[in-house]
Amino acid sequence: MTEAVTGPQIASSVQLGLKENWPQFALLVLINAFVGGMVGIERTVVPLIGSEEFRISSTTLVVSFIVSFGVVKACANLISGQLADAWGRKRVLILGWLVGLPVPLMIMWAPSWGWVIAANALLGINQGLAWSMTVIMKIDLVGPKSRGLAVGLNEFAGYLAVGVTAFLTGYLASKYGLRPAPIYLGVAYAILGAVLSILLVRDTREHVRLETAAHARQASPISFREIFVLTSFGDRNLFAASQAGLVNNLNDGMSWGIFPLFFASFGLPVDRIGILKAVYPATWGILQIATGPLSDRWGRKGLIVAGMWVQAAGLFLSAATSHFEWWLVGSLLLGLGTAMVYPSLIAAVSDASHPSWRARSLSVYRFWRDLGYAIGALSAGIIADLFGMAWAIGAIGALTFVSGAIVFVAMEVRPGART
């Protein structure tokens, strides 16, 4: 049974919609670009710092920084929804930036690889809290009709910044060395993100109350344990989205750690590696401006299934070839497929979640999704050490194809939903 909501009075100035909230929405887009830039400083140069500056020969050990990042970010995601509901979105966003401030400094002056691993643990907290809040706050602002658009614009800003920063760090590394010059970008991102979040961002919990007031409420509250079980495997749509998110970031974690080493093993210079590492997230970011709204119009499932299979094709092509031009095509396919999947998955989870526990359900989905970074980097590193990097890339491609098939079978379209 459901009952009408008789919650606290909501300020009359609070409205849902992109047009009604565009100044705050635009500010959050900019802030998430800085969040993405923090990851972008690592995409090209950090694996090379491990192999060339610290002389680490084990691929598994080199990618260990991604494992620390992925595990910590997944756990930060898991608690971010709880903290957002208890403390407010803005406070959690600021906390994420404060934790991220020392990260670029630690990478620039790290005397050992352990410092880089520790910096990435802090980066995981930064990303888990700050990125989670920017996407949740945008969804809060626009309401149910434009979730795909909101997520698409959020991820566009974040991953375009990842791509641009990966290119810039590659260029700077080719001119001035792997450290410290390329990492100065991260110092600027951290300071700007923190200052804007503290001074200009407004909390969005009133928008959630407004949406909840117009939505039927469950007769009894739902616990976080119940939400975790429901999002992980209790609901067909939420399970399909969670496993696809995990595999999507599993292949991203692999590409983050393995691709620079794989390309360098063929003698590709660092500036051209930077181009390849930029094309994938930049394509992913830019195309989400289109794929997010398309998921609102066409539905989520078809884009998710096709996107996973396009990613798999890009990985197979990259593993099977040894020339820059083919790797460029593979990176474009990987970016296209991820753009189809990423906003559609977050919107699908939002569709299947009640407004009163949507933030917590998204935090569980993001826990599984970003745990994929650690699983992908670790498994790819082990396979690469045993069989070679091409085999690692191909194995992750096969798993990505299987994940798309699971979505095709498991995800269902509910009446009134867009999945």
Describe this structure in words.
It is a single chain. This protein is an all-alpha fold and 419 residues long. 79% of the residues lie in helices and 1% in strands. It has 17 helices and two strands. The protein has helices spanning 22-43, 45-53, 59-62, 64-87, 89-100, 103-109, 113-142, 147-176, 184-199, 205-213, 224-234, 236-265, 270-298, 301-320, 324-351, 358-387, 389-410, and strands at residues 2-3, 217-218. A two-stranded antiparallel sheet has the order 1-2. Helix 16 (358-387) packs antiparallel against helix 17. It starts with a strand and ends in a 9-residue tail after the last helix. The model is unreliable at 1-8 (pLDDT under 50).
Properties at a glance:
419 residues; globular; 1% strand; mainly alpha; 2 strands; two-stranded antiparallel ribbon
Care to give the gist of this entry?
It holds the Pfam family MFS_1. Helix content is 79%, strand content 1%.
Helix-strand layout with pairing:
Blueprint (H helix, E strand, L loop, with lengths): L1 E2 L18 H22 L1 H9 L5 H4 L1 H24 L1 H12 L2 H7 L3 H30 L4 H30 L7 H16 L5 H9 L3 E2 L5 H11 L1 H30 L4 H29 L2 H20 L3 H28 L6 H30 L1 H22 L9
Antiparallel strand pairs: 1-2
